[in-house]
Amino acid sequence: MSVFAAAKIVFFSVLLHLFYLFLTFAADYEQNTLLSMTSTQCLIIGSGPAGYTAAIYASRANLQPILIDGPQQGGQLTLTTEVENFPGYPDGVQSFQMMDDLRRQAERFGTRFVSGIVTRVELGKKEENGSIKHHLFLETEEEYVADSVIIATGASAKWLGLPSEKEFMGRGVSACATCDGFFYRGKTVAVVGGGDTACEEATYLAGLCQKVYLIVRKNYLRASEIMQQRVFNNPKIEVLFEHNTKQLTGENKVQGADLIYRKDTPDEQIRHIDIDGFFLAIGHQPNTRLFASYLDLDEEGYIQTIGNSTATRIAGVFAAGDCADPHYQQAVIAAATGCKAAIDANNYCKTLS
Ligand code: NDP
Questions:
Q1: What average pLDDT does the segment 179-201 reach?
Q2: How many CB atoms lie within 10 A of CB 38?
Q3: Separation CA 317–CA 319 (nearest Å)
Q4: Which tens digits make up the pLDDT trace of 238-258?
Q5: Atom 38 in ligand 1: which residue has the minimum CA distance?
Q6: Can you tell me which atom of ligand 1 is nearest the CA of 196?
């Protein structure tokens, strides 16, 4: 055999080996990609009343929905105790029980639940075959792909934004009386806000604490009449109208608060109260940051839907519940829009086949 022929054999065997390596790598790559990617017709983000109701309807429509729980399984309703205004519970219901009932109902029809937080989205992406898909990525980089997405990410508690609020977080400052009220038995606390949440939290805390201040920035409560009456009839609650919180004071934990009475008026005064706990109940902001570059949001960040539907500006993407509702923010309305979103998603999916 000539040197040239031997070199040719070596060259081709190296080439063959490289080709084999490439095929193995490509197969591994494809397998890994497939392993971390799950496809379905309908993805639901959020596990509050909107998400669970969407799941019940989407699974009954055979969309084989996958519901991604988000950071708070059961949504913000689980931060409260008893729900008295959801139709069908004449004696009220514990919020955990209600959310568990909704979850089990969705499970019964085949909804698949995933524990995780969506950290990145690619909505309305054109695939190689020309179809439009929506991609969601979890914090683990697991990828979910679907024809339709129902966003039901709800809203989270707002904070005043005081430096001392951050300083005392978890050491006297809380946004959830139900979660943390127990630690303040027999003590004095303050609740900030004048809406239903503030009145509910103040009433709840009055059942545990020696005294509750309700700090209200206006000279009236925004809460419903029944909630107001509960507050006014409770001898342990003192309502401080026209007060704003200037700062929290204390060493290592909340021991007091400096309040401003009639801020920016000739009557302005600083008042100090001694407290052990400070609870925020000043409303919520929508959890929609992830979608800001894709969808139309209003100035407060709520997702804007089209007409009387749950459709957004991206075909196949729907929004339900508090993330798209700056006005009502009621569990029953969230549930109803979850139902609408599933019907809208089903109608959309039908147009694809
Ligand atoms: P709301 O938006 O109704 O009320 C927020 C309150 O916080 C208002 O009184 C507002 O004052 C005050 N506030 C806002 N920002 C500040 C600030 N920076 N400093 C001081 N005060 C501030 O929120 P809620 O969470 O109370 O209620 C949301 C929705 O949920 C409502 O529709 C309510 O009816 C519903 N809900 C129903 C319940 C039930 O039926 N069991 C229980 C809880 C909530 P201002 O009035 O001056 O704007």
A1: 94
A2: 16
A3: 7
A4: 999 999 999 999 999 999 999
A5: 196
A6: 26
